[in-house]
Fold this protein.
Amino acid sequence: MRLPQAKLDQVLDRFHEVEARMSAASGGPEIVRLGKEYAELKPVAEAVEALARAHIELSEAEELAGSGDIELAAMAREELAELQTRLPDMERSVALLLAPKDRDENASAILEVRAGTGGDEAALFAGDLFRMYQRYAQLHGWKLEVEDASEGEMGGYKEVIASITGDGVFGRLKFESGVHRVQRVPATETQGRIHTSAATVAVLPEPEDVEIEINDADLRIDTYRSSGAGGQHVNKTDSAVRITHLPTGVVVTSSEKSQHQNRAKAMKVLKARLYDMQRSALDSARAESRKEQVGSGDRSERIRTYNFPQGRVSDHRINLTLYNLPKIIEGEALDDIIDALIADDQAARLTQLEEGWGQ
């Protein structure tokens, strides 16, 4: 892969310009904006500079390899071979840094898991999926907080909504959005027959620096008495909150003990859903080829099957099948799937970048 030198020079010029402006900036907002751009450009600029040094070293090694000094020429040929092996990976790394990125890559996220077709078994499976993401978040050092939940009659969840806070949450979990299917023998099945049920997963970005304008006049806020476990745990006050965004019809609820906290949680989820609707509208306006790429956000199609009798997990988007279902459903080996999806997405973005350079 040969990267356009003009593009590399453009990156370095912008990086040095931002660096100079940061030292001269006086206003707080400007410093914050420049600091963010500097942080984004720095790894790219460093990779570009390292690549430039490698190319210089390559030219010098080529020159020395043809010199009359036998010992020096032999050393140069060794260095030349090493550089020729290393350069393609360096160029690919730079290309990935230059490729179009999801601006919400590093954002925290709202996770929504809902039982689909399959009755009680679907709710149990939704519970399994949610616990998988809980464990996965824990392993990555992220903070997961349940925003709202509706439990199934036999266990699991009809619906559960949680916020996951941390660096790069959305970038790793965005590929989980879609319909997840399970094939297994339910605990209630007396004849050992395998049932198929499903749950849907939605992962919505929760960027801190994006303002979603919501007019109070567009909201209908209702309070009601949330259901409890019975006895002393019954909620005797109207603390649960339901917010309806009238222009879009989006409804969010929160049913913890504090009405004030419920309203704040519901508004956070509402903003994430409205932001996701904006992203989806932009996605639908892009080229058809872009929509077909992994991570397009299309949740209508089945993306993954968990087959318990065979211990098999299949991701249908990239034709990946793994036989370590127990570790995947525990969150410990979920990265085996997510890493493969990210690699496939990176390959697609590199192709898109090369096609752009070829125009």
